């Protein structure tokens, strides 16, 4: 393979490799953790809802603080430390299962602690990338990262279902612990462009509260950032609703086995890869228009899930259609919105802007998750899925009537 463009940038290549292996392991655990609760501990819809709350609430609470510290400190050491911390936490789950001590309480606690570390890692990662590539390379960089993560998604979901079915969910999570260690090693190899740079953590530095407020003002005062955040609120609330009841619906109500579901989910990885491959080309038709169209397609794709009513060929077709349409559309949207945010947010508050966006995402998913637990048990799982589809469509409408719609291209100038 001819090495050109960003493939000749060793700093980017190491970050790309670290993100790929970490994503693979994380998605194995993303599948294994709720299955551990469902299959080993006979978890109810409200218990799964609580597990998702445990994953989301700490990120919502600590997200803004994470952004302030990421802007004060060097980002690479944060990424390494959080990778190693997550590995240590995850490995306690198979250990407890082997000793016969695994319970919902431990799953809640591990999910919460991993969530805190993941917030710091993700904010540092998104804020670190612009220091490794030029602004005009951001769409290419995010496309390559997204494509790699899509391959990881396809391989993770196709293998996770069978790992869970054959080896049990806790043992499948050992894979995640190993990949976090590998990710930390790859990040450590990156020649750090921040080495020797001054940080804001000093006695004369503004307070954390002042730093957080500055990041929030940067979003509120920019109509494009503000439009993306409001659209994200609806989209992520939809994700919370659908994500909470999805496995219960397709496994318990419809009757699909984990192995088959893993193969279906792998289709989403393939479609996400295709979305990543075409995201850069599509952005030439207008970044804002592409983002609006992508969210509309995502809401259409999500509608296929409640249309599946049995574990038969028709059900398989609907679930595969959801993976093909929704996953590819959301990948195109995410690449463009992350690249646009990284390019237009002032560089000195980028960590706080990224963190603020993540906090709104966590809050919206958290709200959807809590509501899903109630609606799922009171009105039914399918009704919960349809509400999620409606909110996904609302997110696309918000974006359509915001200034984001008129954005034609990613700015090439360096953020101020």
Extract low-pLDDT stretches: 198-204
Radius of gyration: 20 Å
Indicate the CATH architecture: Up-down Bundle
In CATH terms, the superfamily is: MFS general substrate transporter like domains
Quick one: CATH class?
A: Mainly Alpha
What overall geometry do the principal axes of the alpha carbons give? Answer: globular
- How much beta, percentage-wise? under 5%
- Straight-line N-to-C gap: 37 Å
What does the main sheet amount to? none
- The H/E string reads HHHHHHHHHHHHHH
List keywords for this structure.
416 residues, mainly alpha, Growth Hormone, Chain: A
Describe this structure in words.
With 416 residues, this protein is mainly alpha-helical. Helices cover 79% and strands 0% of the residues. It starts with 9 loop residues before the first helix and ends in a 16-residue tail after the last helix. The model is unreliable at 198-204 (pLDDT under 50).
Summarize the structure in short.
This protein has 416 residues and is mainly alpha-helical. The chain has helices at residues 10-40, 45-72, 75-98, 104-128, 138-167, 169-188, 208-220, 223-253, 258-282, 287-302, 304-307, 313-344, 350-378, 381-400.
Strand-helix topology:
Blueprint: H1 10-40, H2 45-72, H3 75-98, H4 104-128, H5 138-167, H6 169-188, H7 208-220, H8 223-253, H9 258-282, H10 287-302, H11 304-307, H12 313-344, H13 350-378, H14 381-400
